[in-house]
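(Protein data)
===
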Amino acid sequence: MLGYVAIGVPCGILCDSIGLGPLQVFLLSALFYSGAGQFMIPNMWLAGAPIASIVASVSLVNTRQMLYSAAFAPACRGAKKRLSFLFAATVTDESYGVNVSKFAEGAWSVRRALLVNVLSQSSWALSNVVGALVGNAVGVPLAIASFAMTSIFICLLVTQKVTPENLVAAGVAIVGVFACKAAGLAGPAILVGALAGVAAALLFSWARGRG
């Protein structure tokens, strides 16, 4: 929740810079729960991108949410469908990392995981509203505010257990993102990089097992 304050306030400032009011920012955060997507919208708007391009790019980036939800399918066996639906609908990058770790430890339930998601989303939405209210009065440069989302992904990366598979996944994902952006495919870059990293790690693990 505290991590969301650090990135939610800059996101609110960015949203304020394109003319969104506090209520609009709250609704966007509550109904469209995607940190990366929410950062992309004002950044692309300020860059002069057409609305169709913004919608397409954000939609492509958010397809990763389907992978997150699918990864939790085994953990949701035996849980009520409504509870599983709410849990899957509120999964995002940071809460995914927390819940994956907790489910791996055991003694964790879908109900507890949903609570993590809801509290995280509440922190995100309220932090965005604070950023919109404060606006540019705090004097945070937009370039720094835009980097906030990148910084949280770096934090998630360095807290992962150092294994050969994780190193392969991170390395291939980074190369994949840079390759996509170099080719002018900034929209699907995160998705392509993530899929390439996961595929490479699985292939590496399979090859080690056969060896």
Notes: Residues 110-134 form the longest helix (25 residues).
